[in-house]
Protein: tRNA(Ile)-lysidine synthase
Organism: Lawsonia intracellularis
Amino acid sequence: MIHRKLPTSLQDLPSEHARLCLSIKRFLEENLSQNIQGTVIVGCSGGVDSMALALILHCLGIDVVFAHMDHQLRAESKDDANHVKSFAAALDRRCIISRVDISGLAIKYKKGIEETARQERYCFLEQVRKEYGAQWIATGHHLNDLSEDILLRLLRGTGWPGLAGMKAVDKKRYLLRPLLTTRRTLLVSFLSSQNISWVEDNSNKDITFKRNRIRHTILPLFEEENPKFSNVAHMLWSLAKEDEEFWDKMITDVFSKIEGSPEYFWIPRSELITLPKSLRLRVYIEAIRRLNIGQGRASTLFLLDNTLMKGERKKFFQFPGNVLVKLEQDKVIFTATIKNT
């Protein structure tokens, strides 16, 4: 239990940590082009990143609601939930706890533990967001996570600009990642200065999970070759952000001409074949993303495009999340379920 008084404003913090909070505030304003208003749901695992995020937003005067999912994958997971609940109470903030049998769901849906946990977690966060009428969900992803994400995307064959990692703001999913360009060491220092403890998830050391293998075996090799690899990741992310803003405008124009419904829509072939190849590929990516959270492999996207430009018909392409793309006589159909047309 946390009984002592915790900081509630920037004035309660040492100057260096007040500056950290202000830098994160500026980062959000630059990426949102506006101030945060209303309630923000913070996905809080009890780890150093999400605990620091919640306190930073709280000290910035933002109304925070804690949301914690107990995945029931570890014997001590209930202790993690209690730690988050105690921290929220010490800040006089609301806290929502959900307990989900991730292992059971993974078996039921024949999916991996990581994928199931991620999907259930974001579904839970969205439910809490709607319940409290919040505009945003904030997660504690930081610069170290961004470096890992770039390497993961490289292994998957993700194209540009997606290769440069997760976004700071995902307006379509109401997601904010305020710490994305902040190093983990700064978050550790921030909480330590306030004598605030956090939980360590031992499963993060289990290298049977791909992300953990990246973190503990592959990323250290990159950092050995270039100790400033996180700076490289940050620069790559910044360049991609500029490119993406340009492409988003181009893609929006194309999607203003689509027909159908959110789950089943099509684009005229005559419209697609007149576009530059680089834009066509991004249109496919956006169409798939609208139907399911995730990305198709670059090799499949290139095959789809080559088949389209050869003028072939009655061809099907399957993408992750049961997304189907069908080439018809006069249109290209995108659907989350197979339909006869």
In short: The mean pLDDT is 91. Residues 10-238 form a domain with the Rossmann fold fold (CATH 3.40.50.620).
